[in-house]
Design brief:
- The chain is mainly alpha-helical.
- It contains four helices and no strands.
- 68% of the residues lie in helices and 0% in strands.
């Protein structure tokens, strides 16, 4: 249900009707996935920045390395 809303762009009410559940049930599912996705591990911080391409490349590289380190700890 959450995928239909978050990825496919369907309205929560349409998904609820199709799945035979309340709109609130769809809303709870969407919120659960959104919150899990938005979670930032302890010691990390989410930032948004506008950077020159070469700097953005470095930041993406740092992000990949940080994710690899986190995955290795799990």
């Amino acid at each position: 249900m959450a995928r239909a809303v978050l990825v496919d762009g369907e309205a929560q009410s349409a998904v609820a009707k199709r799945e035979g559940v309340s709109r609130n049930a769809v809303c709870l599912a969407v919120n659960r996935i959104w919150n899990a996705h938005s979670e930032v591990p302890e010691g990390f911080e989410r930032v948004t920045a506008i950077l020159p391409k070469h700097k953005a490349f470095l930041v993406r590289q740092w992000q990949r390395e940080a994710v690899e380190r986190l995955d290795a700890k799990r």
